[in-house]
Amino acid sequence: MGEDELLAWLRRQDSRLAELLGDDAALLPPSPDEGSRHQAVTVDSQIEGIHFLPGLDPAVVAHRLLAVNLSDLAAVGAEPVYAFLALAAPADFPHKRFFRALLDGCRFHGLRLAGGDLARAPAVTATLTLIGRQPDGGRWVRRDLAHPGDVLWVGGSLGESALGRFLLGRIGRPDPLAAEHSLPAELLPAARHSLRRHLRPEPQLALGKWLGSQPRAAGLDLSDGLAKDLPRLCAASGCGAAIEAASLPAPKEFQALCRALEVNPLETQLGGGEDYVLLFALPPETHPPESFGCTAVGRIQNDRTLSLQGPVDCVELPALGWDHLSPRE
To answer: Can you tell me the distance from the alpha carbon of 300 to that of 241, in angstroms, rounded to the nearest whole number?
Structure first.
């Protein structure tokens, strides 16, 4: 049973779950107290040996933990408010370095660390729960709001984080500079940027807030890969989509770096995962501000097919991406 199948099974066990399981964060109604606002709650983990290599700088672990959670709030258009941390780590783990980085990130994003739990464990497992709120005058950005004819956009380049993960995995240790030694000098800037995209993702909170200010916007966070996450948006909205392969955004040296690392560029963009940019659908007359650096990559369509238009022909969108319950992952 894969991740999507398990979530579908859970929804069948309790009809109330169907209202909460489906977006990147649970969208909660306001409490009975006068003046309260709608809230969004999300939780995510970083596990040593799964999400990051053993020995990674605790400050980087903290940054990554906060960023991937904030990306879920960005996906629904929420403002971050409170954080709760559960940290299990060896006794000699540099806790203070981890917490300094986490608190710096919380202050930067207007978050308050409000509680949590500490425990001893043989390896690091850090789990963060974030509570966000709906901005004044804003709407939730949901997966089920796409309409046929909408244009599909992505908030940034695709595939770089996957290349960064590949570089780190190849050298077997979390030293970014060591990954550069076997690459041509002209590709070193692209390699450094890919490593940064993987180790230090930047949540698109401002873009999410702008989407929430629109009359209608559907969206989600690209964490498992475009080819894995797009079907989730389409299933929630009861529609299909056509993607233009040539439109998928990537930096100038991306193709050359893929060739040097002997990985398929298109498959990396479609299924590499951990991009942590927003995928969203807007009416054709609505365009995101140029300052966000978004790219139109396709269109929502009436039927439920998912297609990829290549340079020569149109094929079914390949089944790529990360499934956290799959044995191969």
So the answer is: 4
3-state SS, residue 303: coil
> What are the structure tokens assigned to 323, written together?
């499934």
CA–CA separation, 40 vs 77, rounded Å?
A: 9
Q: How much is the pTM?
A: 0.92
User: Which one has a higher pLDDT value, 114 or 168?
Assistant: 114
* Mean pLDDT on 104-133: 97
For the segment 294-311, what is each residue's pLDDT rounded down to a tens digit? 999 999 999 999 999 987
Cα(62)–Cα(191) distance, rounded to whole angstroms?
22
What token pair was written down for 87? 């940290």
d(CA 321, CA 318): 9
pLDDT of residue 325: 76
- Characterize 163-186 residue by residue with b for buried, 16 or more Cβ atoms within 10 angstroms of its Cβ, and e for exposed: bbbbbbeebeebebeebbeebeee
Instruction: Give the span between the Cα atoms of 116 and 276, in whole angstroms.
Output: 25
